[in-house]
Amino acid sequence: MAAQVISGKKVAKEIREELKIETEKLIRDTGVQPGLVTILVGENPASVSYVTAKGKAAKKLGFNSIQENVPADISEENLLALVEKYNNDSSIHGILVQLPIPKHINDKKILYAIDPDKDVDAFHPMNVGRMVIGEPVFLPCTPAGIQELIVRSGVNTEGAEVVVVGRSNIVGKPIANMMLQKAKGANSTVTVVHTRTRDMAEHTRRADILIVAAGAPKAVTADMVKEGAAVIDVGVNRIGTTESGKAKLCGDVDYEPVAEKAGYITPVPGGVGPMTITMLMKNTLKAAQVAASKK
Known about the structure:
Layout: E1 4-5, H1 8-30, E2 35-41, H2 45-60, E3 64-70, H3 76-87, E4 94-97, H4 107-113, H5 125-132, H6 141-152, E5 161-165, H7 172-179, E6 189-193, H8 200-204, E7 209-212, E8 230-233, E9 237-241, E10 247-250, H9 255-261, E11 264-265, H10 273-293
Parallel strand pairs: 1-11, 2-3, 2-4, 5-6, 5-7, 7-8, 8-11
Antiparallel strand pairs: 9-10
Helix pairs in contact: 1-10, 2-10, 6-7, 6-10
């Protein structure tokens, strides 16, 4: 029996409808409109596309959305000054500097300069620490999206064996940490495997929930997956082009054979991808709600 497909598009749409209602209520009750600024350094085509999508999503929800485009040769000092300007702007609740940024600028220095209470990407060490001790203000966007997909699909996480493939700071480490917290959608037993793991398949075959962020196309094959497991594929890999010239995409999971064996599976595209921007919007709304409560 084929796996139940978990549609990130569908879940993201549901969450955005909820956020729109909450945003309208916040504006009506407090007069506070969530404000998000995205800072784009240079003209990297992928970054331009991401930032445009973030701005559109914010406007649709009723946020005040500002996009700051700065030249690729901006000095580190001037970029830090721009971040500080928005740190001090009470109408802005979320600050996002789109990565990657040019090599002459220390990206950590820029990300760490963002006020932790406006760090809606949740990359600041203070927000990472809050997540680790189970008292997050914001959760990192892609991992938070993964957790929402699991919970809203009705997959039981209590005591479940969760195996995370990959140990990046953006996905692998945070989702592993989130799944072991004493919290709804967590309380799991978590194993992290990576490029130095001796026998990866030995671990992945035990997983009730398998989260794959390997960064390699079709790295997880059907023989590595337990019958009936929930498989969340975080990867997006370009594997050529279609006849019409569109990019052909695949995940880090060998989709068709794994879908025959798994109980649940996310597609690529249309799985985890649509959730990331949605969770960024959720974090921005939360930042605005916190700011409104302090007024």
